Amino acid sequence: MDFRDSPEDAAFRQEVRDFLRTELPHDLRAADDAILGVGIGEDERERDWLKTLAKRGWVAPAWPKAYGGAGLSVMQQFVFNEEMARAAAPRPNFLAIGLAGPTIIVHGTEEQKREHLSGILSGENFWCQGFSEPGAGSDLASLQTRAVEDGDDYIINGQKIWTSGAHRSQRMMLLARTEADAPKHKGISYFLLNMQSPGITVRPLTNMADTPSFNEVFFDNVRVPKSDMLGELNRGWYVATTTLDFERSGIINGVSLQRLVHELAAFVRERKDVRDDVGLESVRHELADRAIEAEISIVLSYRVVTMQTKGIVPNQEASITKLFGSELAQRIARTGVKLGGLYGQLRQGSPRAPLNGRLDALYRIAIGSTLAGGTSEIQRGVIAQRGLGMPRG
Amino acid sequence: MDFRDSPEDAAFRQEVRDFLRTELPHDLRAADDAILGVGIGEDERERDWLKTLAKRGWVAPAWPKAYGGAGLSVMQQFVFNEEMARAAAPRPNFLAIGLAGPTIIVHGTEEQKREHLSGILSGENFWCQGFSEPGAGSDLASLQTRAVEDGDDYIINGQKIWTSGAHRSQRMMLLARTEADAPKHKGISYFLLNMQSPGITVRPLTNMADTPSFNEVFFDNVRVPKSDMLGELNRGWYVATTTLDFERSGIINGVSLQRLVHELAAFVRERKDVRDDVGLESVRHELADRAIEAEISIVLSYRVVTMQTKGIVPNQEASITKLFGSELAQRIARTGVKLGGLYGQLRQGSPRAPLNGRLDALYRIAIGSTLAGGTSEIQRGVIAQRGLGMPRG
Amino acid sequence: MRFKFTDEQEAFRGEVNAFLKDALPSDWEGADNAIDDESYEFGREFLKKLAPQRWIAPAWPKQYGGLELSHWDQVVYNEAMGYARAPIVNTAAVGYLGPTIILYGNDEQKAQHLPGITSGEVVWCQGYSEPNSGSDLASLQTRAVADGDEFILNGQKIWTSQAHYADWMFVIARTDPDAPKHRGISYFLMDMKTPGVSVRPLINMANGEGFNEVFFDNVRIPKTGLLGELNRGWYIATTTLDFERSALGGSAGVQRTLEDLTRFAKAESDGAGGRLWDKPLVRHALADLWVSLDVTKMLSYRVVSMQARGLVPNYEASIIKVFSTDLIQKQARVGLGIMGLYGGLWGDGPWAKLRGRLAKSYVATVGTAIAGGTTEIQRNIIAQRGLGLPRQ
Amino acid sequence: MRFKFTDEQEAFRGEVNAFLKDALPSDWEGADNAIDDESYEFGREFLKKLAPQRWIAPAWPKQYGGLELSHWDQVVYNEAMGYARAPIVNTAAVGYLGPTIILYGNDEQKAQHLPGITSGEVVWCQGYSEPNSGSDLASLQTRAVADGDEFILNGQKIWTSQAHYADWMFVIARTDPDAPKHRGISYFLMDMKTPGVSVRPLINMANGEGFNEVFFDNVRIPKTGLLGELNRGWYIATTTLDFERSALGGSAGVQRTLEDLTRFAKAESDGAGGRLWDKPLVRHALADLWVSLDVTKMLSYRVVSMQARGLVPNYEASIIKVFSTDLIQKQARVGLGIMGLYGGLWGDGPWAKLRGRLAKSYVATVGTAIAGGTTEIQRNIIAQRGLGLPRQ
Fold it and tell me: Are B80 and B72 in contact (CB under 8 A)?
């Protein structure tokens, strides 16, 4: 067992670190992005930074070189993501780079790859994920949105919910039912829907996390050409599992959390009034606990990525990592707003908000993180089953 | 609403307090008893104290005066118990005074009352409760011990478990099945079993709490005369519910817990090395939390006793009181052994054990208190049902 | 001992409830934590409806527009208002300022200010906190310098609730910079329309502009605006006032939300053919909230019982603060966990369950835990006064 | 990065397991936390079986009877021993004293003492703590006064594990009362049979006599019993020794108990037609224990990885202490809650499930949490060294 980077990984880490030190403008460094997970948007300077990344193939470092990526190994991707987080560098949009692109690379025709991949890599095209529907809960395959064949098109009717970023997306990864009578997993097709098509209505869901905002998306006789179907007719669920696999294999990056804990420590070191208000010992112990936990989160994610590197599928190991990380994010947020005192409640953007309002953002988002991508309850179920050998609950 | 003693209750409280101050020898004061719940045993000086109590009718203050009690109201009993706990006075054995006696007073014949009550009041006769059996869990009525008629006797065969104090008892409140084919609640009879009868074997269950020790009791063709049956044949379950009602109406006495918290505070005030070891602020805050909770426990028990006084049956109010009190006892124990440092782990009797080893005793007993008399889970079920209007879980 | 409200008190509760049924819209689901213009306007209108009953400041002496309500009646009143989630406006004036004027004000000041409060016409904000003064309020830096018949005020306040809506502010400022810090402070009554006063909102998490910064740039306050003696303002500001009863019965709102949450768990599917409230984890979580609520309620009643007997609650009041803050935060977290993604929605959309109340509570409680003394400070009070542990 | 043991390490694990299968009775359920005469005798016999493999002190240099086992091999060894719940005897000699003698002892001392340890013949106890010295060990009061070829020892030690069984004690005592407190202490090797030594057991909760008080009444130690230089004993006692590897892989025992507990939950009825492990509350509780166990294991591996690379773990080791202590206590509490009344039973009776292991662990952990630095102290280390917060 060895907890060290291999010599090659260490060299790569150094390369990324050097690159970030020399190329990333200092005022673009902000941990907000790593926490919020929004990704680079329309900001001009961030778009310049995206071009800098593109020169190395580091916009989509996991993609094969043939499609404009860097073909990094699983471990190198992890190292890359760690260093980006440590430097608080703005990152390309995950939905496009991490989900849509890789799914198209696996299942797309040559035309589809040509049409979509470059727009994703340039950061011009945002994507959203049209999987969830109201009432379906965690059983995604019970979706009701219909796609009916009509000449060269399909006509879509129905509704999606919890669609992050739908309001600014050019395309949607859309699942719709193309065969009503088939078993639920076998009548679904996967479309690369143009969000400018007539009949689409996007309505924001006002929520406490605000960013990335959730939306409802309504389809009223929306036409999607057959050429925008990804994979085969009625085989869309299998294409979707590829997307979901990419989504699930995302590893909680303990480095962002650790960075935040250290920023909190710095905040406390500087602010005597804060220390006085909450009592120094409480502060010490609470921060110490969070620091411990952030380190644990890092070690746990190392294990998952090491397993993936070897082609082993992490089961309860992934669940433990996710459970621990998401609950830790909540604890850090609570510790943070508590230490921030009255200032801790100020919103991002308020000039008096400590840590540029990241406490506020994390506090509002972290409560959702135990829900998104499998609630804590589900993770505990996996652990009971795979770790302790209990039957399904 | 008024949280004060009524003038009568206040006068009575003062009377008890004066009595305890003048009559209770100082070196008999020890909170151990209140925590352990053993009651006065064979100790000569404690027996003298029992006689002092007897002069006022305060051995069994709840019993009617006709039977040697003081006929106190529910509230007066509570006040009496509080003052006894505050003074850390040794108390008469609860199984005999609190359960066996009152049940006999309700259901016994004149002969049975004559035979048993005076031995209970004098402290000569100890009683144990032969209800639980292995495998029956919380469904007491599923008991398997058989009593078969044979001339003027019944012959008992079977086994009981968790029988506190069986090793030193003269009598047992015994439930046995007298009609095998009847519905389970309707074939049970209630016996006042002489523990000196041949065929009884008492085997201690070695357990971490040690005192009051649990036992198994085995019956091998034990003869009990028909005159020792309490109540009617096959109606024993209804007699038993009387006993169980007396058992359940026992109110957790927050004063014992509060006393312990104050003793802990005194211990910390005196012992600088303890404060240094655990850090003063931690100590302060942890003790403050326990002090708060002890006061809450007291207030909650006041409410229950007030309801009883008015003839209202406390439902979720009793469950809340019990749940909070028993979990609090555990927290106080944990706080206590932690603050005691290495000394906190020493057993009762060890000269270096702080607070005369009461920390040790409480720590070992408190973990069981969430099980005895309805586990915390059951209490939460009652609260969900009666407090929040949910269906049975 | 008595653990029941009297028949008279229950009758009074019925009277308040009947009024509320009349005064609030039939589909009233409650005021939001976040104050916006519309809800604020609604609150001011509601004040006007309260005024004829003398229910704006019911604890005040009758001669100043109150009813001299007993402590227990005030609990009944607050519980009814809290359970109905009636709008809350001008609490600082009713709870702090009015009683302070009654105690320290001269006749002119009483005549000028008290009727406006009890009629619901004039709304006040409180100017105590300053940036970086932390919990040591007395270290304030705002200066007031005498100039003829006026004082000239310069400096800044922070965390001023509803300053942007308020008509007047009661404000403390340093009038003798050379005196020991507690002895050079005076207490002023200031019209917010005075030139030189500017307000900048502090956007807090709850999406509301509840808090503000207020800046004073050569603001001229007439000498009639000085309350009590010069340089004695600190002692006026820190007087414990028997009229502050707004906290009594405050758990009624928590109870209503818990009932809402239970209804939610009853209505929603558990995804396995049952209802959410069949799940043991949900049942236990809600039962634990009920226990905490019950505990908090009992503790408040005890404090009221003490006050009603003329005793001054000491650490007993601190205990409530610790518990109720914790309860509201726990309720928000547990509630959001039970509600899933839907819990995070707010606004009027069809998916926002319980109108986003739990989400709003989750973010609003960040401030609550701090305001009025942190939990740690309360614990220290208990350790010291309740247990006799040494000061730190 | 590598998260797997090598094939060689796994082969070594097999070797240790095969040995244990042979050396322990077939129905071996594990050593008890509480040591009694019988189990102690069994432990000493077990030591004799380990000796031929050089497995008593496998990390020691070969010339002194060890195998110079690598850190990772030691983890494998400890995990196998821990999971088998093999008896633990003489750890102070193997972990602390032996390496100290190797470093500071003269040739005679090495020849006299080391072979007895690696052969399993001689058992040692540690005489550091004194009453009221708390965590400030250096404030010790036991005196050693030179007298001809001897030192005369007077005073008292406390918390001396297994003093009543030990053959020898390594003990620190004050030899210069006028020097600053760290500079007047010397380090002695003392035969427990020396006249004037008396042992009094401290009965602890676990019902065992693990701890003792040891009294010295004019105990004469020959000058050959002085280890290292006079008055330099404090520095010897506090040397961090690279040979102390007994803690590595310590979570294996916790894992076994968790597996036992899971089996219990599988076997027992839930009283409603199912098994205990069907109850969501039980499932979640056990899953949470598994997470904590896994976390503790990962943390230990990280420390080993550092040590294997020659780095000195600092607060990383403190972290493990905090977590594993908490884990064992939590496991005991959760386990007792799941097991109900049966969990509290111990001994060999038919109703004592898992042989009362959880009950014993519940009471035994009271000492664990304190020994070796309280959790609070560990947290302070992390706050200071890991986060740069100011000292208190």
Answer: yes
Which whole-number Å values give the CA distances from A42 to A49, A93, B235, D199, in the listed order? 12, 11, 82, 78
CB A230 within 8 Å of CB A107: yes
Residue C107 CB burial class (10 angstroms; 0-12, 13-18, ≥19): exposed
Quick one: tokens of D48? 């004799």
With a CB cutoff of 8 Å and minimum separation 6, the contacts of B247 are B98, B99, B373
Token look-up 């945002």 returns A126
CB C34 within 8 A of CB C360: yes
Q: Say how many residues make up chain B.
A: 393
Q: What is the CATH number of domain D125-231?
A: 2.40.110.10
The 10 Å Cβ neighbour count of residue D133 is 17
Measured between alpha carbons, how far is D185 from D93 in angstroms, rounded to an integer?
Answer: 20
DSSP code of residue A320: H
Candidate from A311-325, C116-130, D287-301, D336-350 with smallest mean pLDDT: D336-350
Please choose, from the candidates A204, A207, A239, A235, the residue with its C-alpha nearest in 3D space to the C-alpha of residue A218.
Answer: A204
CB atoms inside a 10 Å sphere around CB B13: 17
**Residues on chain B touching C388 (C-beta within 8 angstroms):** 265, 269
Q: What's the token pair of residue D135?
A: 């965590």
Confidence at A87, pLDDT banded by 50, 70, 90? confident
Same domain for A297 and A368, yes or no, is: yes
Last-in-domain residue among A199, A232, A265: A232
Round to whole Å and give the CA distance between B341 and D205: 13
Nearest-CA distance B342 → chain C (Å): 21
Which partners does chain C have (≥3 C-beta pairs < 8 Å)?
A, B, D
Residue pair D104/D36 in contact by the 8 Å Cβ criterion: no
Q: Are B143 and B136 in contact (CB under 8 A)?
A: yes
Q: What pLDDT score does A65 carry?
A: 93
Query: Are D284 and C284 in contact (CB < 8 Å)?
Result: no
3-state class of C66 per DSSP?
Answer: coil
Alpha helices by DSSP H, listed for chain A, are 7-23, 32-36, 44-55, 74-86, 94, 101-107, 110-121, 236-248, 254-270, 272-278, 280-309, 316-339, 358-369, 376-382
CA-based nearest residue to D375, from B279, B220, A192, B285: B279
How many angstroms away from the CA of D225 is the closest CA of chain A?
42
Tens-place pLDDT, residues B363-390: 877 776 665 555 777 888 888 888 888 8
Interface test with A, best of D283, D297, D324 (most A CBs within 10 A): D283
Q: Percentage of chain D surpassing pLDDT 70? A: 90
Domain count, chain A: 3
Q: Which two tokens stand for residue A287?
A: 């921060």
Whether residue B393 contacts residue C295, with contact meaning beta carbons closer than 8 Å, is answered with: no
Distance separating the N- and C-terminal Cα atoms of chain C: 38
Fold assignment, C7-89? Butyryl-Coa Dehydrogenase, subunit A; domain 1 (1.10.540)
Residue contact C294–B302, C-beta within 8 A: no
Cβ-defined contact of B347 to D351 (cutoff 8 Å): no
Catalytic, B317? Answer no
- Give the HSE-up count for residue A134: Cα atoms under 13 Å, Cβ half-sphere: 13
Q: What ipTM goes with this model? A: 0.82
Domain holding B136, by residue range, is 127-232
Q: Give the residue-averaged pLDDT of C317-336.
A: 84
User: How wide is the angle at C-alpha D264 spanned by C-alphas D258 and D265, nearest 5°?
Assistant: 90
CATH number at residue B37: 1.10.540.10
pLDDT of A137 > 90? The answer is no
Task: Just give the CATH number of C247-386.
Answer: 1.20.140.10
**Residue of chain D nearest B279, judged by CA positions:** D376
Domain residue spans of chain D: 7-89, 125-231, 247-386
